[in-house]
Amino acid sequence: MTMRSAVVRAVVGLLLLLYAAISLYPFLWMVSAAFKDQREVVAGGHLIPHRPTLHTIVQTWNELHFFDYFVNSLKVTGLTVVLVLIVYSMAGYAFAVLRFPGRRLLYRLFLALLFVPAVTVLLPLVLLENKLGLLGSHWGLILPFVNGSAPLSILMLTNAFESVPVELREAALMDGSGEARIFTRIYLPLSRPVLVTITLLTAIPTWNEYLLTRVSLNDPQTFTLPIALQNLQSSAVLHYNVLMAGALTVVVPVVVLFLAAQRYFVNGLMGAVKA
What we know:
- By secondary structure, the protein is mainly alpha-helical.
- The protein has one domain (about 55-270): MetI-like fold (Orthogonal Bundle), CATH 1.10.3720.10.
- About 75% of the residues lie in helices and about 0% in strands.
- The chain has 14 helices and no strands.
- Helix 4 runs parallel beside helix 7 (about 140-150), helix 5 packs across helix 8 and helix 13 (about 225-235) runs antiparallel to helix 14 (about 240-270).
- The radius of gyration is 23 Å and the shape is globular.
- About 25% of the residues are buried.
- The model has no long low-confidence stretch (mean pLDDT about 85).
């Protein structure tokens, strides 16, 4: 390695470290403020709390009912992910393996939805939910979230299933296996990284969704974490430590989920997208 290349690598490394520090600082400040009292947060100072306390987090969960909001978010996100995996894995299998009239046209119509901005269908969606009696319920969130995940999920799963060697399916058919058995015993296990990737790509936006949730829900007992966090920020007396404790409640599950599944994420993206 020459001196010039070593200097370039060192400069690039320092710039990346600087970028990482700038990017991580707001997150670290949020974590720090959640373990401080209001006076110490307003006073500023070091990131490390002088007198760390769990009182703010406990108060946020108990007195401000953040546990109830957490359960609501978990319910909406969990049901959305389960329905997405069930429905679109079967759709991807049908598009990749089965042959039926209109298959290519229907597949392209689903892909075309990738180019439709979600905000453009917000008003028609709310009107439709109102007519169906879904407005104000969690199903009024879950079903649109599932529908919105269709284009990307079908694209990724169809490409993943098409990459499975066709000889495996032919051998299973010769052994007397039906389509359901081939789907569950061969195609799904071989596509695990893609399924995990779709889980992440579905769960994170659903967990963080605010606009549709704000429009659809009007009963405080059905509120999810993003609405609860916005209500804290809009309160007459703003306590930054309480607000950061609420933000920590929203962020930590997403970070834990990504860290737990990150080893599948890159493999899933590579396996789902064809060159």
